Amino acid sequence: MSDSQSLVDIVKREQGQFDAECILFIDLSSRKLTDANSLSMCRNLITLNLNNNNLTNIRAFGVFTQLKILSLAQNQLTSLDGLQTCENLEVLNVSGNDLAG
């Protein structure tokens, strides 16, 4: 999926929402996504599941200040840059990535 705006449109359509800021839960697991930064339009997310994709960075995820559950397992992440401001994060799953540490 290359058109990042269409990613938000898909989520809005699946959830029957017209306002991206009203979306609280997103499950886009196993969609072969290479970029999910456009989801930053959904600023009030509480739960985000992006398992089993091809994501390489999450730099734009810093806007998710309400996020409590984030699942990024089985992607191609090498860094968690972008999560520094996610102060409400309670659950983080990054298993199966290439994180050095």
TrEMBL record:
<keyword id="KW-0433">Leucine-rich repeat</keyword>
<protein>
    <submittedName>
        <fullName>Uncharacterized protein</fullName>
    </submittedName>
</protein>
<dbReference type="InterPro" id="IPR042655">
    <property type="entry name" value="LRC72"/>
</dbReference>
<dbReference type="InterPro" id="IPR025875">
    <property type="entry name" value="Leu-rich_rpt_4"/>
</dbReference>
<keyword id="KW-0677">Repeat</keyword>
<dbReference type="InterPro" id="IPR001611">
    <property type="entry name" value="Leu-rich_rpt"/>
</dbReference>
<dbReference type="Pfam" id="PF00560">
    <property type="entry name" value="LRR_1"/>
</dbReference>
<dbReference type="InterPro" id="IPR032675">
    <property type="entry name" value="LRR_dom_sf"/>
</dbReference>
<dbReference type="Pfam" id="PF12799">
    <property type="entry name" value="LRR_4"/>
</dbReference>
